[in-house]
Amino acid sequence: MKKVSIKIMIAAMALMLFAGSTAEACTGIMLKTKDGKTVSGRTLEFGVEVSTSLIAVPKNYQFVGKTDNGTGLKYKSKYAMTGIITFKDMNIADGMNSAGLSCGAFYFPTFAEYTPLTKENQGKALSPVDFNNWILAQFATVDEVRKAIENNEVVIVPTVLEGWGETAPPFHYVVYDKSGKSIVIEPIKGKLVVYDNPIGVMTNSPTFDWHMTNLRNYTNLKAENVNSMTINGVTFKSLGQGSGMKGIPGDFTPPSRFVRATAFIVTAIPVKTTYEAIGEVFHILNNFDIPKGFSREVVDGTVYADYTQLTCARDPQTLKYYYKTYNNQTIKEFDLNDFDANSKDILIINTNKGSQTVINVTKELKPLK
Asked: Is 26 a catalytic residue?
């Protein structure tokens, strides 16, 4: 057996073990500039290494939905696309198209329940990984996506996929368009449920509406420090900065990350350009960066440590897609404008290509005058 196959097999087994616990602590956010333009980004975490690559897909590329009983929905890409694939499956799990529509799949353990596959629905069936790709290939706006789902144009069926274990991987999805509209799509009890996402935040289980309700537990939080307090003539001053945020959850569970991500984006000071906003996206998502070892599961004496393998950012205004990895924090950029949308080929690069660079500034130091 090839080494790659062994790696994938080990990863799949570990993913099955992680499905209900620490696996996939992804966090997604959206930011606005001073003039209302939006950018977005997310992290990707797993307790085992997930093979990822960046691809670029031309218009009119033929895709076929996968099911456990043969081919599903057949469709062509109306738009050029770029983003991240997993396990060499040529379906984008997180990405952006040439219309400025962005979409990301997030792990949704214990809650995802797909539509059962039947002879009647197989012609419009997609696997959990196909669904995200179909959105990017077919639509330009959030409203178009919502309409297609309300019209029952597709179903997500439980499909066993290479690299994801012996059962269908549980996902839900966030979609952003160039205007700043956002929705969350979740497979609940066999139906696709669509929620408006006015704040642009996304994490994992439980359901999106639960996370929005949970925010009501933190309405006391504010960016400004609390005032001093006087008791019997004695004044007690705050010990330092950040007292207005005292009580914000600091762990890496999905509910805590949802609250924390919301706090970061609502307190972020708007910048002028989307390029600056992309920098802010990375700064904010650094706060959700999990180093190896902090979040872990021990199975039969083996430690599986959840860690941030990839951080991405998307600029729908300039059609630039950015990413950095755990092993190389240098930010890479792919410009969809420079890609031939009428090409016949998919372009690909492994995201872990290259190693971390360190700039030596020793010889740049000058005498103090």
From this structure: yes
